[in-house]
């Protein structure tokens, strides 16, 4: 499904709706050019989960963990990594909840992943014009909530 996003506020609202409706173990794989709104979307997810801490891009830290909301949010950014470096991160520990409390996993630059979880939402953000964006949401072995489907 495709959703037109008129501005950054619309991208944030989409993220809030996602955060309010996602369930434990949900994985969001984000793709899109620099500045397309990936981090803004994850900030909205954080707000939707009730996280009050500022959600920032983990470009240099690779992984930011926010555990104070309705569910934990694990925000990853693979921009600076090569696929073989991504393998060494053992990302499945996040979506399987093996060494962390199960929560929501949002991964920016997911196209750098050499493997994917069994179930996830793929969200590709693209520029339409200078300020407008489009989000293409594709579920893989999972469902989109009614709240998202009605946007």
List the uncertain runs: none
The total count of helices amounts to 5
- Widest β-sheet, arrangement of strands: 1-7-6-2-5-4-3
- What series of H and E elements makes up the topology? EHEHEEHHEEEH
Overall mean pLDDT stands at 91
User: Helix proportion of residues, in percent?
Assistant: 25-40%
Question: What is the element layout, followed by pairings?
Answer:
Elements: E1 2-5, H1 8-21, E2 27-32, H2 38-48, E3 63-66, E4 73-77, H3 83-88, H4 92-96, E5 104-108, E6 120-127, E7 133-140, H5 146-149
Parallel strand pairs: 2-5, 2-6, 4-5
Antiparallel strand pairs: 1-7, 3-4, 6-7
Helix pairs in contact: 1-2
Explain what this protein looks like in three dimensions:
The chain is of the alpha/beta class and 151 residues long. The chain is 26% helix and 26% strand. It contains five helices and seven strands. A seven-stranded mixed beta sheet has the order 1-7-6-2-5-4-3. A hairpin with a 5-residue loop joins strand 6 and strand 7 (133-140). The protein is globular. The mean pLDDT is 91.
């Amino acid at each position: 499904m495709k959703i037109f996003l008129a501005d950054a506020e619309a991208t944030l609202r989409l993220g809030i709706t996602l955060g309010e409706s996602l369930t434990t173990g949900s994985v969001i794989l984000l793709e899109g050019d620099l500045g397309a709104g990936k981090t803004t979307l994850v900030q909205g997810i954080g707000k939707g989960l009730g996280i009050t801490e500022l959600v920032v891009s983990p470009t240099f830290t690779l992984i930011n963990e926010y555990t104070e909301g309705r569910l934990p949010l694990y925000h990853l950014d693979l921009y600076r990594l090569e696929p073989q470096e991504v393998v060494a991160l053992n990302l499945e520990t996040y979506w399987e909840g093996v060494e962390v409390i199960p929560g929501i996993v949002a991964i920016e630059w997911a196209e750098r992943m050499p493997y994917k979880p069994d179930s996830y939402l793929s969200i590709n953000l693209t520029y339409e014009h200078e300020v407008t964006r489009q989000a293409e949401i594709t579920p893989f072995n999972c469902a989109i909530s009614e709240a998202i489907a009605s946007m």
